[in-house]
Amino acid sequence: MGEMIQFKRPDGKTCPGYLAHPKAGSTAPGFVVIQEWWGLNDQIKKTADRLAEAGYRALVPDFYRGKVTTAADEANHLMTNLNFPDAAGQDIRGAVQYLKQSSKKVVVGGFCMGGALTILAAVRVPEMDAGACFYGIPPLDAADLKKIRIPLICHFANKDDWCTPAKVNDLEAALKQSKSQFEIYRYEAHHAFMNEARPEVYDPACAKTAWDRTLKFLKKTLT
Questions:
Q1: pTM for this structure?
Q2: Which end of the chain is more exposed for a tag (fewer CB within 10 A), N or C?
């Protein structure tokens, strides 16, 4: 269903990505899918395929340029070395611009590290129409969240030791200072509860609820 492509960043450099096509073709709404810290792996490609089945042109930028890992320490190393402003302002923005060549509206959504980048992109990517954040928060001093004007849907886990409930409350307070129409949902689950490839934390019931809420939000926001 999907293929690897190259798309242009605003600075003229190229970024590789995985593009999954919906039945509706190139005029369907776009969804830029942001990976977890593991890289552009099979699980995130399947997530893009699933979004394509739901009717979206799903594009996953490859921030690590081909590197993929299953080891947490290596993933942490790759994430730590990632230039977040460059990833948001160039790779993600380039992906949004690429989809906008034929899609009228484009949403950005991501998981874990990708959730944090989704919030950063909402500040830095003017072409973005909506955001879907799954258990990721950027350092609140790294982004002026007051500038966010687009609708956001955010999903967090109450048993998350990274995006703790206290940090989620801080994010909610910051978003209240913005013009964003946002929704925040909290689940009795662990970090990465959407990731079916990680059975130790995957929660099928919470994952289904979050997925259904996201599709409903997108339908309302993008039509």
A1: 0.97
A2: C
- On average, the pLDDT of the chain sits at 97
pLDDT at 44 over 90: yes
Strands 152-159 and 182-190: parallel
Q: Which residues of 122-159 are buried (b: 16+ CB within 10 A; e: fewer)?
A: bbbbeebbbbbbbbbbbeeeebebeebebbbbbbbbee
Residues contacting residue 89 through CB under 8 Å, at least 6 positions apart = 10, 124, 125
Phi, psi (deg, nearest 5) at residue 185: -120, 140
The answer to whether residue 1 scores a pLDDT higher than 90 is no
DSSP 88: I
* Cα 195 from Cα 83, distance rounded (Å): 24
Of 167, 145, 140, the closest CA to residue 131 belongs to 145
Query: What CA–CA distance (Å, rounded) separates 83 from 63?
Result: 9
d(CA 145, CA 171): 9
